[in-house]
Design goal:
This protein is α/β, with parallel strands linked by helices and about 190 residues long. Helices cover about 30% and strands about 30% of the residues. The protein has one domain: Rossmann fold (3-Layer(aba) Sandwich), CATH 3.40.50.2020. The strands form two sheets. Strands 5-4-3-6-7-8 form a six-stranded mixed β-sheet, sandwiched between helices. A three-stranded antiparallel β-sheet has the order 1-2-9.
């Protein structure tokens, strides 16, 4: 599947939206990604998971970890494609942790997955968590990479789709200046 086919899929499933959006960061944007709109279809989730797993098929991976909430389904599908266990991390008192009896064993080879990488912050937190348990991160994969600037996870990074999405400060937002109404999508309030 090409990037153009992925973009078409995301648009058809209302996962790539155009308009005027207030992001969790407080910045404004003319485009918004909501991968849950694609991941709600098990056949599409499985297909995307297989594509994300492909770069790791020869790497003796033991475990896939994704951050809650966006990385849960992605981790499950990548784990299924690789034939390994998949778990997720959660925030507790602002810190990424493992709960629910999940564990990472010393020396386990781990793939960290995300739905969307924007700043890379959550992904880096999961990488640090894996290292705290003495796991070995072999790589990172995401459905969408929408970061701008430099981003180095210290391991190979395999996004399926790279999107350049402009963001604006609220004070300098051209969409606000045009008087377009704003929407606050997303999962965090």
């Amino acid at each position: 599947m090409t990037e153009q086919e992925l973009i078409k899929l995301f648009i058809e499933r209302s996962a790539l939206l155009e308009g005027h959006f207030r992001l969790t960061s407080g910045l404004h944007s003319n485009r918004y990604i909501q991968c849950a709109q694609v991941l709600q279809y098990p056949d599409l989730s499985a297909m995307l998971g297989e594509k994300l797993a492909a770069p790791f098929s020869e790497q003796d991976v033991d475990l896939v970890v994704g951050p809650a909430i966006g990385g849960i389904i992605v981790a499950q599908e990548v784990g299924r494609a690789l034939g390994v266990k998949a778990i997720f991390s959660e925030r507790k008192e602002g810190k990424m942790t493992l709960r629910r009896g999940f564990e990472i064993k010393r020396g386990e080879r781990v793939v960290v997955v995300e739905d969307v990488v924007t700043t890379g912050g959550s992904t880096k937190e999961v990488i640090d968590l894996v290292k705290e348990y003495d796991g070995v991160v072999v790589g990172v994969a995401s459905l969408v990479d929408r970061h701008s600037g430099d981003l180095d996870f210290g391991v190979p990074f395999y996004p399926l789709l790279k999107l350049d999405i402009e963001t604006y400060s609220p004070d300098g937002c051209p969409l606000c200046q045009k008087g377009l109404s704003i929407v606050k999508p997303g999962s965090r309030e």
